[in-house]
Amino acid sequence: MSSVDISRAIATLAQTYYKVLKVNLTDDTYEVAKLLHSEVEHEKTLDVKSISLWLMTFADQGNVYEADENIYRTRLTLESLRNFFKENDRFRLRYRRKTDGVFRWVFMEILKAEDYTDKNQSVWLFVQDIHDSYVHEMEVQRELEHFCKYDTLTGLNNFYSYQTLCRNYAAEHDCESIGVIFADLNGLKLINDTRGHTAGNDFLRSFTSKLVEHFKHELIYRISGDEFLIIFRNCDKEDVVFLAENFQAFLNQDPVPQAAIGCSWSRNPSHIEDVTRDAETRMYVSKEAFYKKHPEYKRGIAELAYKREIDAILKSLSNSYALMATIDLVQNSYWILKSVKKSIAPKSKTFEGIANDVLDFIDDEYKGIVSNFFDIQHLTSELKKNKSLVFEYKTVNGHWHQATFRTIDEMEGNPIKALFILEQVDHGRAARLEHVRDLQFEHQIIEGLSKNYSMICRIELGTKKVQLYKNISLIENITTAMASLDYDAVVKWFTQKYVVSEDKNRFATFMNFDNVRSRLEKTDQTSILFRTIPEFHNTKTESYSQFFFYRLKSDPDKIVLATKNVTNSMG
Question: Which residue from 234, 239, 241, 230 is spatially nearest to 175, judged by alpha carbons?
Answer without folding.
Answer: 234
